[in-house]
Amino acid sequence: MANKFRNLNSKLFHLARSSFQRTSVRPRMSFPGRESGFTGNRKVLGALGALTGTAGLLIYALESSVDASSDCVHPAHQHWNHKGLLSALDKESVRRGYTVYKEVCSSCHSLQYMAYRNLVGVCMTEAEAKAEAEAITVRDGPNDEGEYYERPGKLSDHFPSPYANEEAARSANNGSYPPDLSYIVSARKGGEDYVFSLLTGYCEPPAGFALRDGLYFNPYFSGGAIAMGKVIDNEVVSYEDPNVPASAAQIAKDICVFLKWTSEPESDERRLLLIKVTLISAFLIGISYYIKRFKWSTLKSRKIFFIPELEAQAKREAEEAAKAAKKAKQQECNKCENQNEKQE
């Protein structure tokens, strides 16, 4: 790696040096006192450009080397329908993903930053979201008597956590703490591709790979040993739509889309805002350009001619006008003096 960078730096240096030494075909005019300054600025700019390019290549190479030396398999890129600039999330897939989370994932993982009201208008109606919220029991209080009580859930309540605290979660999972899934897609490099590959990538460990009790082999997890077992399999959940097969790949896809929505619940609104801003900006830019051309047309289209004869004539006329004004002033002064003498 070091030899590659040395060769790259030497090539960049020779390229910059040759660009400084080459001469232009078109003859240049010489301005005293400016040629040395221009040459110095050119060398400084060339050196800065070479250093910037070298730094960019170094950063890219370090990033690639870190990825290449990772202790896990890189997830394959999947073709998601919501990855386009103007593509929205599949609301049916989000609804099915919520079903997968409720029946499979919620026994270990929490969604502490999501409330039941967030489901309204996305994958459920208000009545359906209320029914989902009322299915849980929330400890609330204190009441007027200072006691805590339990009540059915409301739309404003957040998704319940499967464990009371972190210690209880670690105790139930052999010391491992199941992460919260609210922003898991945004928090992991690879996003949906990583989560999909992790859920569907369980396999037998290779020869010589030792696993402790309670761990499972997954090549997409750092180190290969993961405490979460294989929970996604064919027919692990039942979908409401009989036309959608409940295969392992489909279930993993739906839960990934659902977790993408929990990570960025405002993504569709941002895309709609982008469309509105683009349309309004195009209209305003067109109007502004037309007004600018209209207002500046008189200045842009005028022509200024320089004719020496006309300039000389205008100069003579100005001199004659000045002389005439001076003569008229002198005559008025003389007239005033004559009047004063007659009065005396």
Secondary-structure class:
mainly alpha
Estimated radius of gyration: 39 Å
**Biggest beta-sheet profile:** 2 strands, antiparallel
- Distance between termini? 113 Å
Topology (SSEs and partners):
Layout: H1 2-21, H2 35-68, H3 91-103, H4 126-134, E1 137-140, E2 149-152, H5 166-172, H6 184-187, H7 192-200, E3 216-217, E4 225-226, H8 248-263, H9 267-295, H10 297-301, H11 308-343
Antiparallel strand pairs: 1-2, 3-4
Helix pairs in contact: 1-2, 3-8, 7-8
Provide an overview of this structure.
Keywords: Coiled coil, Electron transport, Heme, Iron, Membrane, Metal-binding, Mitochondrion, Mitochondrion inner membrane, Respiratory chain, Transmembrane, Transmembrane helix, Transport. Belongs to the cytochrome c family. The chain is mostly helical. Among the domains are: 39 residues; 125 residues, Cytochrome Bc1 Complex, Chain D, domain 2; 25 residues. It has 11 helices and 4 strands. Strands 1-2 form a two-stranded antiparallel ribbon. A hairpin with an 8-residue loop joins strand 1 and strand 2. Helix 1 runs antiparallel to helix 2, helix 3 crosses helix 8 and helix 7 runs antiparallel to helix 8. It is elongated and about 130 Å long. It starts with a helix and ends with a helix. About 4% of the residues have low confidence.
